Amino acid sequence: MEEVIRKEGDALIVPDNPVIPFIEGDGTGPDIWAAAVRVFDAAVEKAYGGRRKIQWKEVLAGEKSFKKTGEWLPLETEEQFRHYLVGIKGPLTTPVGGGFRSLNVALRQRLDLYVCLRPVAYVPGIPSPVKRPEDVDMVVFRENTEDVYAGLELESGTADAAKLINFLKETYGWEIRPDSGMGIKPISVTGTERLVRAAINYAIKNNRKSVTLVHKGNIMKYTEGAFRSWGYDLAKREFGDRIVTWDDCGGDVPEGKILVKDAIADAFLQQILTRAAEFDVVATMNLNGDYMSDALAAQIGGIGIAPGANINYESGYAIFEATHGTAPKYAGKDMVNPSSVILSGRMMFEYMGWQEAADMVFRGLKGAIAAKTVTYDFARLMNDARKVSTSGFGEAIISHMTDQPADA
Ligand SMILES: NC(=O)C1=CN([C@@H]2O[C@H](COP(=O)(O)OP(=O)(O)OC[C@H]3O[C@@H](n4cnc5c(N)ncnc54)[C@H](OP(=O)(O)O)[C@@H]3O)[C@@H](O)[C@H]2O)C=CC1
Ligand SMILES: O=C(O)CCC(=O)C(=O)O
Ligand SMILES: [Mg+2]
Q: Could you tell me whether strands 281-284 and 258-264 are parallel, antiparallel, or unpaired per DSSP bridges?
């Protein structure tokens, strides 16, 4: 019988043999998925001795879907993610400068997965370009449904672009070059409040020290600046007894309180390199969050190991996915690092309440890295590594799954 994960009130009800839909992904997606699914199944088997098992169900999107169905993102795929509540996906190609819009963004928008959750923490043994990668332990909450990612754009030279440019001149007196392409950046109270609320709730639940609102509000006053103001207002209104702001305490945070502060995005990007330990949970808008998550990933070894999740905390819908893209030059070479999808699976197990399986995945991964068995991206920065393939790294993770606690 088909077992389906469902949400009842605040609780996620997870059967022992849940159906979990997956998208293999384009480019390196199939290589990574083949390694990752073996790791997931091994972790569940070792953690629960056969009592639990995932029933994987492939759903189509991207190039594979287009070849089979003529559609890039069939409605059925979206419906399957809704039906089964929790899913996982590989990266999907988005053409640059034209063609169809991002399927990744479309899925997030259609399921209203408003949080893009990207934890960035160092795993010992991984080569890093910074002196103190262990100082990086941040959790990025990136707003996932609006900002310039809303896809509201008009192409330069079109009648529609000309119409908008004329309207803006007539209505506001704005002078915009007639050969401009136009894009809209919506940032709403609704989008901001639910994102910041999720970030603060996460900080409380996980005993984190601070939540930093990152914005470019000095320049984009009514979008990014408003995000900052609405974020502070929400924090004070809904979490007044749990948080303090910099103005309240001058940085001297009372025991048990979470500091809510803000940083302008350009300064933030240099401070995460110079003073990484001062940042913890970070809440920001879509484009900033996209840039920041890759930049932060670089500090802990690169996007090959940076996981992520797209979540709606009210409906419970969640799609787990890597931070990186399709890395097309390595497609089919069984070469890239599968850690990002594998650690996204670890996040998925945690979300499902399968902590033992999550710990098993992490233990295996830490063991493989400690043994210096790594893929090309890490091997090229290490002197004494044993370079293995995508599938070889998956096998190494499985062979290092032990019964020792994750942080032993
Ligand atoms: N969520 C999604 O599905 C995403 C999709 N994309 C899409 O992916 C496509 C390619 O984007 P691109 O900008 O090249 O970014 P990618 O993230 O695909 O690749 C950029 C570089 O990052 C490194 N990298 C990526 N993945 C891995 C991995 N698993 N292991 C090791 N290193 C890795 C490689 O670096 P090196 O060359 O140094 O080895 C690679 O050349 C685009 O169509 C883009 O839109 C992009 C991001 C997210
Ligand atoms: O959708 C895409 O192609 C890119 C998205 C992206 O870079 C991200 O979400 O991190
Ligand atoms: Mg990105």
A: unpaired
Q: Is 369 exposed, middle or buried (0-12, 13-18, 19+ CB in 10 A)?
A: buried
Ligand 1 midpoint to CA 216 (Å) = 26
Which residues carry out catalysis?
Answer: 149, 216, 266, 290
For residue 211, pLDDT beyond 50: yes
Q: Mean pLDDT, the chain, as a whole number?
A: 96
* Predicted confidence (pLDDT) at residue 405 exceeds the cutoff of 60: no
Domains 1-114+307-408 and 129-146+187-299 share a fold: yes
| pLDDT band at residue 1 under the 50/70/90 scheme | confident
Q: Is 320 helix (H, G, I), strand (E, B) or coil?
A: strand
Q: What is the pTM of this model?
A: 0.97
Mutate to test the pocket of ligand 2, among 23, 63, 103, 105 (most ligand atoms within 8 A of CB): 105
CB atoms within 5 A of ion ligand 3 belong to 290
Residue 346 near residue 119 (C-beta atoms within 8 A)? no
**Structural class in CATH, domain 129-146+187-299:** alpha beta
Q: Is 108 annotated as a binding residue?
A: yes
Residues 240, 143: Cα–Cα separation, whole Å: 23
For the Cβ of 105 lying below 6 angstroms from any atom of ligand 2, the answer is yes
Q: Where are the domains of the chain?
A: 1-114+307-408, 129-146+187-299, 149-185
53 appears as a binding residue in the annotation = no
Average of pLDDT values for 147-175?
Answer: 97
pLDDT in tens, 306-352: 999 999 999 999 999 999 999 999 999 999 999 999 999 999 999 99
340 is in an annotated binding site: no
Q: Dihedral of CA 137/143/145/151: which sign?
A: negative
Confidence of residue 290 (pLDDT cuts 50, 70, 90): very high
What's the CATH class of domain 1-114+307-408? alpha beta
Report how far residue 58's alpha carbon sits from residue 139's, in angstroms, rounded to the nearest whole number. Answer: 29
**How far apart are the CA of 308 and the centre of ligand 3, in A?**
11
List, for residues 262-287, the tens digit of each pLDDT value: 999 999 999 999 999 999 999 999 99
